[in-house]
Design a protein that fits this description.
The protein folds into two domains: about 30 residues, no CATH class; about 300 residues, Cysteine proteinases (Cathepsin B, Chain A, Alpha-Beta Complex), CATH 3.90.70. The chain is built from nine helices and 18 strands. Strands 6, 7, 8, 11, 12, 13, 14, 15, 16, 17 and 18 form an eleven-stranded mixed sheet that branches. Helix 5 crosses helix 7. The chain binds 2-acetamido-2-deoxy-beta-D-glucopyranose. InterPro entries: Papain-like_cys_pep_sf, Pept_asp_AS, Pept_his_AS, Peptidase_C1A, Peptidase_C1A_C. Keywords: Disulfide bond, Signal.
Amino acid sequence: MFLFSTLFSILLILVKKLAHRITYKSYCYEGSESYTVGQKIKKNCNTCECRKTAPKKFEFVCENKPCLIQPKLNDVINRGNYGWRAANYSFFWGRTLEYGIRYRLGTFKPYRETMHMNEIRTVDRRPLPESFDSRRRWPRMIQEIRDQGECGSSWAFSSSALASDRRAIQSRGRERITLSPQHLISCNTRGQQGCEGGHIDRAWWFLRNQGLTSDQCYPYTSGHSGHKGHCRIPRGRHKRFRCPSGIQDEQYRSTPPYRVGPSEEDIMHEIYNNGPVQATFRVMQDFFSYSSGIYRKLPVTNTNPTNQGWHSVRIIGWGVEKSGGRQKKYWVCANSWGTGWGEDGYFRINRGQNECDIETFIVGVWAKRNHLRRTRRRF
Ligand SMILES: *[C@@H]1O[C@H](CO)[C@@H](O)[C@H](O)[C@H]1NC(C)=O
């Protein structure tokens, strides 16, 4: 009798254990869902597989790639007092940081040669306003925010937009043409990498020698394909030709670009007198999640060179934010990530401290000569 009851309880324990294993232990859990061994899920940008990691232990084993949006980093930004706020962008969620650097930026670090462009220093020392906005000064002449999509082509977007802005301003609004970034991406191929990045000085060389057609003539397609595509504009300076879009158009050449002296005042005078400028700067991880305020890179940001890239934008104005008796100076910049990012596609960044090198590589074009003096360096 005793033996029987002992055997019975042992059996009961075994059955219970087995049932437990079947119904409970051999699953991985995520939220309210259960997964069996071998099933995969995605956690942000990493793929995780349900595995048996120890006897009776089942859990997800994940890749460990840095993600473009990191909720923890966003929390740090939004709880801290950094002067700007972070957002979880759905178009960046689930992507790796490497993807962001490769396909959302796309300007090569300016070489020494770029630094040898004609440098212009302003001799104009008239007082400047506390704030300035090109959009108000030159209404309907400043290019709107666009989206480069999944193509590292900021080099083409910033250059074509700047050439368009300057053209409109210099002609007092008579020549308002949106020049085609696709033309640059597909046809300016010498030493350039299309959707994998480009050099600013080579883009300007092309704008000067070949010129760009309009966006209507050669619409942007690389944002979806991620490839530069074949050049569909005849080489040489043909007067008028048939466009990829079917209309007739020509190519509009630009005058030489020049480098604006790397000082806050010089940059302000340049924008004030001649219009927006092109700036190339260092992008760290935290910049991708910027949603509003005055950006400055976080002290906690990983500054490892593999975790950053170079990007180019237009600076269109400046201003001062006054809060709590303190003044914070900023630049207003136009990005090329669509209007769903930042402050309707724009961002403000710390001014006067060369934040992320944004004041180092400034390019202008189509100058009015009277306020400017040329230095002897040749382009
Ligand atoms: C961020 O956004 C994505 C997509 O919109 C969403 O699936 C995810 O849960 C969000 N993450 C956080 C931490 O809010």
